[in-house]
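[job 0417] fold request received: Class I SAM-dependent methyltransferase
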Amino acid sequence: MVWQSWQAAWHNALYGPDGFYRQTSGPAGHFATSAQGIPGGGRLLAGALVILAERSGCTRLVDVGAGRGELLAEVAAIAPTLQLTGVDVVGRPGDLPGSIDWLVSPAALTCRPRCATCETPS
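[job 0417] inference complete; emitting structure tokens
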């Protein structure tokens, strides 16, 4: 075992190759959010976001820290013409509707300090 700072150890526990947010089950395997943990909560939250987007004249919704895309899937079901993008440290979930764009979060935003998993060439 190699000694590392508290910050690096915490970072690797969350975002390293076997980190919490990279697990197949995602955060939903360990705790519930309003998008997927409360029966009907995801649909209710999605509906509120759609109303807010419509009233504001927004045509795109970006979910940063999208997990496995549960909230975006609910929004897509309610407002199929709204452009949707999910951003997270994991790849695009396989069961996400095809109309939803997905970005893997850039290392510069997720890795402070950078870990070997997120290291990018200079």
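[job 0417] notes: The helical segments are 6-15, 41-56, 70-78, 107-110. The longest helix spans residues 41-56.
[job 0417] exit 0
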